[in-house]
Design goal:
Elements lengths: L1 H19 L12 H11 L3 H19 L5 H18 L5 H26 L7 H10 L1 H28 L13
Helix pairs in contact: 1-2, 1-3, 2-3, 2-4, 2-7, 3-4, 4-5, 5-6, 5-7
Amino acid sequence: MAGNNFRIAALLAAISCAAVFRLVPHPPNFSPIAAMALFSGAYLPRRALAFAAPLAALFLSDLVLGFYPGIAFVYASVALTVVIGWAISTKRSAPRIASAAVAGSVLFYVLTNFGTWLTTDMYPKTIEGLAACYVAAIPFFQNTLAGDLVFTALLFGVFAAAERAIPRLREVPQPQLA
């Protein structure tokens, strides 16, 4: 079990390091939050912890950066991205991880822009207003996708390299119950 605790501590440290990038100046929506959620879902063995780690990082950074309309939609997209991480947790490969990162980006785009349309007065509450909201968000989506791919590659790549270099980081198989 000590090996698992060391691994969990290293995973949480990786998530915490990535979270710091949200606090440094960066292009709009070029952030590690979705990558952290995907990484948490794919690697953390306890589902409650897989949700808690990226949501806590998001909340702590929001305490510094401030809260905003539609915040619930951002938190929902992060939670759902953890679930996407679960889907790749048993078979992590570069194509599956990249596909999951793209899926998380699209999910974030759809949910948060719907939230913007719903919770602000920026757009009329019509189908046309919703479409205008999505169109106006396309430049931000490009940054979201780029950030998700970069931070996902960093988190998954660095941790995979660390697992190869440090045996204590490798997953400890759990005994099967008869």
